[in-house]
Structures are given as structure tokens and as C-alpha cells.
Design a protein that fits this description.
The protein is 55% helix and 25% strand. The protein is an alpha+beta fold. Strand 5 and strand 6 form a beta hairpin.
């Protein structure tokens, strides 16, 4: 007897809830896609529909980030999503949970590094410029956050690229400059 579409839809939602919950970090659309496509759980079209449904049902929350002219969506599980997962987690086959647990173990460090260094920009139509926001985070705590107003998209691209490639070096320089007596002279 074939599996009903409704059951498969619920199974897909539980899989995504379990993945994001086990990761213990928000996950980008690309990261979620990487997992479900490479593990052959669903195709891109189905994933898009499932994510949209989960947002509508308040199982997930989405935030938008801008990075080098690419918009990225990050997903976080909501309290309603956690409650649903706790109630139905045992309906996820053990083999699927094992695959997800292994993926999380293999990828958490990589995903955490992506999350810890943040560089985004936001057009400011009122001032006809851009706000570039850069940060370094550790255990959900900001070590540093910078907000820089720039006039051109080229400046945005340069700041984002430099921050993403050298954030730790730039952080050390900023800390040294602001903690060294007389460094502003």
C-alpha cells in the first residue's frame, strides 16, 4: 500500500524539525537543502513547499541575511515546533534519526563557524546608503558587533569579503587598538 501524501508531508516536517533541533543552531536554507537532497529524503521543490508550510504553521521561524548580494534564509525551531517534535519524535524511524545524528556530528563545527562569523548588509533607503553589520559570536553571545554606514555597493562587498576572510585578525586588531593606552594618538 503506497504512503499517503499527507503522511509523507508530516514525516518530512518531523525530519526537518529533528535536524534543526539536534543541530542546536539556526540553519541556512542551503544547509537544510544540502542534508535533505544529499540523503535523498526529498527533492528541492518538495523541500521548498514543506519549509513554507512549516513557517505558515509557526513550526519554524525564518530570518533573512544579506551577504555579498545573496539573500540567505536561516531557520530556527519555534516553541510550537519543539512541542510538536517532542510529541511525535518517536514516529521518526530510528535509521533516519541515526542518519541525522551522524550528519549533525559531522557538520556541527562547520555550521557553528558559519554562524559565529556574521556579515550582512541592509540598504538604507532613507539615507541612500547601506548599513553593514559584522559580528563574531560565541555560544550565542556577541564578542563584537560592528555597524558601518557606507555609500556604495563596492564598499559593502569589500567589507563583507574582508570580514568573512579575516574576522579573527580584524577582531584582534580592534581589541588591541581600543585596549592599548594612548593608541588613539
Amino acid at each position: 500500500m503506497p504512503i499517503s501524501l499527507e503522511y509523507k508531508d508530516v514525516e518530512n516536517k518531523l525530519l526537518i524539525l529533528y535536524l534543526i533541533n539536534r543541530m542546536e543552531l539556526s540553519m541556512s536554507n542551503a544547509q537544510v537543502t544540502d542534508f535533505v537532497i544529499t540523503k535523498d529524503f526529498m527533492n528541492h521543490l518538495t523541500l521548498g513547499q514543506v519549509l513554507a508550510d512549516m513557517l505558515d504553521q509557526n513550526l519554524l521561524e525564518a530570518t533573512q541575511e544579506n551577504a555579498l548580494d545573496v539573500k540567505s534564509t536561516r531557520y530556527t525551531i519555534t516553541n510550537k515546533g519543539l512541542t510538536s517534535l517532542e510529541y511525535f519524535e518517536n514516529h521518526i524511524p530510528r535509521t533516519v534519526r541515526s542518519l541525522i545524528n551522524q550528519y549533525v556530528e559531522d557538520k556541527r563545527g562547520e555550521i557553528k563557524r558559519d554562524y559565529e562569523i556574521s556579515a550582512n548588509y541592509f540598504p538604507d533607503a532613507e539615507n541612500n546608503d547601506f548599513q553593514v553589520k559584522c559580528g563574531i559570536y560565541e555560544d550565542k553571545r556577541a564578542l563584537i558587533e560592528l555597524s558601518i554606514s557606507v555609500d556604495t555597493r563596492e564598499q559593502v562587498k569589500l567589507i563583507l569579503a574582508n570580514w568573512r576572510s579575516d574576522a579573527s585578525v580584524l577582531y584582534e586588531r580592534i581589541i588591541a587598538a581600543v585596549t592599548t593606552p594612548g593608541s588613539s594618538r
